[in-house]
Amino acid sequence: MILKHLFSGMPVEITGNDSVEIKGLSYDSRKVGEGYLFFALDGTHTSGKKFVSEAVLKGAVCIVSDKKIDDIGCTSVIVSDISKAMSFVSAKFYGHPDKKMTVIGVTGTNGKTSITYMTESVFQALNINIGVIGTINYRYAGTVIDAPNTTPQAMDLYKMMHEMVNAGIKYLIMEVSSHSLVLGRVSGIEFDIAAFTNLTQDHLDFHKNMDSYFEAKKMLFSSLKSNVKNNKKFAIINSDDIYGRKILESDICAEKISYSVNDGKSSCRAYNVVLNSTNSSFHLKSVFGDAAAINIKHIGLHNVYNILAVFGICMAAGLKFNDIITNINNALGAPGRLEKVNFQADFSVIVDYAHTHDALKNVLSAIKNLKPSKIITVFGCGGNRDKTKRLLMAQTACEMSDFVFITSDNPRDEDPESIAKDVEAGAKQINKTNYKVIIERRQAIEEAVKKAEKGDIVLIAGKGHENYQIIGQNKIHFDDREVALDVLKNLKK
User: 426: how many CB neighbours lie within 10 A of its CB?
Assistant: First the structure.
């Protein structure tokens, strides 16, 4: 495409040949090819402007930046916001693929990944292809890509959506993080269905306070007013969550579908809820059809909420009531969520992704419902992340477990021992002594498993599906499931 056409409709300052043909887009200088446009996008640790020379050497014919860069040797475009410009240009370059499919966005602190997996499972059972973009990976039409971010950069999003459209996919469900909303990664994407799960304390290192965190999440629902498709938009919202009720009370351009366990006036409600060690059952009453009996293979009240959200999404997407009910009982969940380590022993080891105090509370509540003799929990907190949740996670773990091993998670650039002290302070604050600090994660898992006796459950929380640890700038292989299985095998020997 011609450069000036790509930026038509956006206020920019172009210096050089505005009629140059753009053959590709990149924000990574290593992936630049002949005739490419390069976005000098700043990263977490470095400035994109440092890689302009490399991009030009590799064939870039245009550089997009937010400040003037001297002597670049090709056409220059200066914009006020590179992320939004990248989204604007990518949409045009890839032919507005979001307008050619039903785009479903799921946001909230907890439950996003499970909901996308469960929704995908229902669609697949009905032989409907659906693309998924989320925390664990991005997958569509037989392609699976590891996910560096819950929501990828706008350029990657549009490229994947373009490929999905070409593969004949009509539906896309994606996890929409608060970071992606604030940083403009989903700017310009036309969502058709937006779902809200809940809001609990997380990411306050980025958002600073809960009000800002909420406003970021709310941006997804505000975006529904953009309706080029001229179709009906839907907002699927948890009315049992205080922030969900705020969205329901706000003026958004969509039909609101509320879901609840407690609110009898909600659009979709679960009642007669029975939670046990192998499944969860309830009756579903909704405005879409007769009441139906639901029996899912997932434990815990949080999964009842997840299924209610999935039901609302499927109805909004146009699936038939009976088709949803028939297949929702067998909906598959996400890996690393209450995942039992497959080993024969007289106690159980469970791995879960819970990395907020609310998620940890949900998981421990589900485990308590299994009536174990004791609960032994292993967890840590990530470095360079919200420090204020460390106290809360420690308190939740110590109050709801018989014994806790405080360990390292992804320390990143922080000192693991310093993080552990922040966590330990939470336990001390409520006068709890049922814990031990073991910084090395493998050793902590080993000690927890050795401590387990008949009828106990060991919960290893915080990483779930992740198969790595980030220490400093290094990403090393580490999978809680593999480590636990290895420890169990060695114990048996």
Answer: 23
Task: Establish how many alpha carbons lie within 13 A of residue 21's alpha carbon, considering only the half-sphere containing its beta carbon.
Answer: 2
Q: Which residue's entry shows tokens 């446009």?
A: 37
Give this prediction's pTM. Answer: 0.90
Cβ 195 vs Cβ 106: under 8 Å: yes
- Identify the domain boundary among 93, 113, 139: 93
**DSSP letter assigned to residue 341:** P
* Rounded Cα distance, 39 and 33, in Å: 13
Segment 479-484 shows an average pLDDT of: 97
| Boundaries of domain holding 264 | 97-328
Tokens of 39: 């976005």
Please give the backbone phi and psi of residue 31, each rounded to the nearest 5 degrees, phi first.
-110, 10
> Within this chain, do residues 101 and 86 fall inside the same structural domain, yes or no?
no
Distance CA(147)–CA(350), nearest Å, equals 23
> Going by DSSP bridges, is the β-strand pair 403-406/435-437 parallel, antiparallel, or unpaired?
parallel
Q: What is the rounded CA–CA span in Å between residue 449 and residue 129?
A: 41
Task: State the Cα–Cα distance between residues 51 and 40, nearest whole angstrom.
Answer: 7
For residue 249, what are the β-bridge partners? none
- Asked which of 93, 112, 137 is the last residue of a domain, the reply is 93
pLDDT tens profile 105-162? 999 999 999 999 999 999 999 999 999 999 999 999 999 998 888 788 999 999 999 9
The yes-or-no verdict on residue 272 having pLDDT over 80 is yes
> pLDDT confidence of 492, banded at 50, 70, 90?
confident
